[in-house]
Amino acid sequence: MSDDPERARWTRWWVVGLQMERSEVRGIGWDKACSRVRALEQRKSHGRLIEAIPAPRRFDGQLVSRWSEQRQRLRQQAEDALDEGARRLQRDLNRRGVLCDRRHPCEVTLSRKGLRAARAESAGAGKQKHTAPRVRICLPRDVSHLNRTRVCDPWGERWQRNGGMYLDAWPQIVERWSSTEWLRVRREKRHCAEFDMESLSGWWRGLREEPAFLNMTNPLLGRHLAAKFHAGQPWTDIGAYLAALPELLSSADATMRTGAKGVGRTCAFVGSGHDLRCARRGREIDAHDAIFRANGAQQPEDRGRFMPPEMLGARTDYRVNCLHNSSALPSMRSEICIIPLPWWLQKPGGESVGNTARSCCERLTRSSYQPSSLLPLVKRGFAFAFLNGAASFLASLPLSLNGDPTLHGPGLADSLLFPQTPVTVPSDSFLSNSGGNALYAALALCDRVNVFGAGLFSEEGASGDKLYAHSYDDRVGRCATPTRGLGPLRMAQAAPGANENINGVAYAPRWLRSRIQDELLLHVMHAFNMIRWVQ
Questions:
Q1: Which of 179, 351, 422, 487 could form a disulfide with 482 if both were Cys (CB 3.0 to 4.6 A apart)?
Q2: DSSP class of 386
């Protein structure tokens, strides 16, 4: 075993995860799986409901709601947009049939506290508090049909194949409600998730206003560097990093000048989700102005993940996690390789990303993204672009940026890169994985973003297991049968980001919650027209 502790830890992880051959993964055929895929409602107009929702402003370092600043007409437009978005969200959730369905529907409601506070202040009823309107998504009151439902990755590590209990992935709230007898008030625990729409609007606007990628003149480059320096303490080789930055940050400048963001620019984010196997969308994908992908999907040299172009398209313009075993493949010459935000929070000398497609059954491969590895590739003509976290910083959206959340659990607090007072966390994994960073870049660079190949799969609707399935697998895997000593994950309800130790796996709760949080975030973005989720 290597003397390198980081390598040794990954070697131990691989030994634990490698327990079976690919043929041992139980699953269903694609014909049956595709018959279960239900399309979301597609709106040709793609009207931007999110644009009608005012974003918070900053005053003396504090976030202040802007609801009370709006004139009556604009405030009414915002309320109408929230109402319409909530209706779309509930309809899409129940129609898609993964988290909810028509037999067991989810309930979407709006918290009106922010709206009432704005009206009260405009009427002179007192000082407004920052209580922005929230969208709340709740499972049905009766969740008995979900008691055995799991969330799992059939092609992941052994504990991920067993998965975790679906209900444990949802936060719980205490709801008060009155029965028909008005004297009786009941308290009831419900499984609900909330989204602060004012903060989400501010984050989305910030993405569109700030440069998508960093360069040497960006005023917030220093904050990114501060996070890197803090991650590396004690660090004696700062000079080498500072010397390499100008060449690294400028490697994509010439290409980026020909592809600057602009009005009318429509881009595609293409994941590896199961629904791409069920429709031939290759020509539709390739017709976009720019195409964003993550990992080895549709790299011609990676035969294990390359699908016919008529299904997934052939073009890629931007890719997160582009290297394969630290090498640049020939197809990379036509792409820009995006360096994701967690790079700034990885320890200097330890910047690396895994390349393994199926943790259950394949040997570990990992690519180095250290400056000493990237500079030779830049000299050979390959282009790298460092993603800019300024939009999230300015909007005070505390999305977690663990360098590798699947191994290290909670990394640095957001005290350096995102130091402001936290508001609602839409998803604590969105910026920690390759796909989330690719979507972040597309939203920052493009006027409109169509999302392909994203989301979970359920064979039996709301009551069925929620599966993480890839279009390049030869079948859709099922959750593994729990073995003695290693059952499905169970955990007590705790605040998002809590680091409980379950089955000896400290990062399991974050993994379990993020599967559902990311799915809900996609639904919210689609309902309010931040993206168009194509299925």
A1: 487
A2: E
Closest CA to 364 of 2, 3, 15, 19: 15
Q: Are strands 318-320 and 336-339 parallel, antiparallel or unpaired?
A: parallel
Residue 126: other Cβ atoms inside 10 A: 9
**467 contacts: CB under 8 Å, gap ≥ 6:** 152, 153, 154, 456, 457, 458, 459, 476, 477, 478, 479
**CA-wise closest residue to 313 among 92, 534, 467, 521:** 534
What strand order describes the sheet that includes 336-339? 383-386, 336-339, 318-320, 290-294, 266-270, 448-452, 532-533
Buried b (16+ CB within 10 A) or exposed e, 481-500: eeeeeeebbebeeeeeeeee
Q: Which H or E run contains 274?
A: none
- 305 close to 293: Cβ distance less than 8 angstroms: no
Per-residue pLDDT tens listing for the chain (535 residues):
344 544 454 444 444 444 567 777 888 888 888 888 876 666 554 567 887 777 766 544 455 555 555 566 777 888 888 999 999 999 999 999 999 999 999 999 997 664 444 444 444 444 444 457 889 999 998 899 998 899 999 888 877 888 888 998 888 877 655 545 444 545 678 899 888 888 788 888 878 887 888 888 888 788 788 778 777 666 667 788 888 889 998 887 766 654 455 456 899 999 999 989 988 899 999 999 999 999 988 888 887 788 889 999 999 999 999 998 899 999 999 999 999 888 887 888 888 888 888 877 878 788 999 999 999 999 999 999 998 876 655 443 333 333 333 323 333 334 344 444 333 334 446 667 888 889 989 998 898 999 999 999 999 999 999 998 888 888 898 988 876 555 665 654 434 444 455 545 556 677 888 889 889 999 999 999 999 999 8
Label the pairing between strands 383-386 and 366-368: unpaired
> What are the tokens at 176?
């008060």
Pair 476, 274: CB distance under 8 Å: yes
What is the rounded distance in angstroms from the CA atom of residue 251 to the CA atom of residue 375? Answer: 9
In this structure, are residues 215 and 250 in contact, taking their beta carbons and an 8 Å threshold? yes
Give the integer Cα–Cα distance in Å for 376 and 374. 6
Integer distance in angstroms from the first to the last C-alpha of the chain? 45
- The answer for 84, left when phi > 0, alpha when psi is -120 to 50, beta otherwise, is alpha
Angle at which helix 113-122 crosses helix 72-96, to 10 degrees, equals 170
- Which residues sit opposite 449 in a β-bridge? 267
- Which residues have a Cβ under 8 Å from the Cβ of 31 and sit 6 or more positions away? none
